[in-house]
Amino acid sequence: MAREGKTAQREPAGQEALTRQPVPRPDGDGPLPPSDDPVSYTYTTDLAAIRAVVHRYAIQAGLTEARAIDLTLAVSEVAANTVKHAKSPGSLKIWCDAKKIVCQIHDEGIITDPLAGRRQPSLDASGGHGLWIVNQVCDQVEILSDETGTTIRLHMNLPHA
Length: 161
Fold this sequence. Notes:
Blueprint: E1 10-12, E2 39-43, H1 47-61, H2 65-86, E3 90-96, E4 100-107, E5 109-111, H3 129-137, E6 140-146, E7 149-157
Antiparallel strand pairs: 1-5, 2-3, 3-4, 4-7, 6-7
Helix pairs in contact: 1-2, 2-3
């Protein structure tokens, strides 16, 4: 587990992960709520395609250009963590309702720091800035990490009609 001041470390889920208890999150550690008819994509390394899909969907859902760029940045940061740390394909699901758009990213890696992205990293830290930025630009960030991998949901409120 990462100590105060250290960056979050991810490792591929393996046999040793099966004995590890789920990492509780500050915003609760129960199951994530169900999604509503998501659009699904799988990625390995092509983050440009993921960014294009997220941006297009965000604009169609009603986000302003600036907020669509923020969401695209957030998804790109999380997806880049999959490519760099999880060493497994990632999956992206996107859905929205009248109030918000949600992007869910899942991979087989495990986040061992229960406060990953919740503490501002020092300027000279070699990592940890991505999840911090994600928490700054999204309206809500949910992280569930256990022996099955990591699921991160990024929520952005839609402007009122």
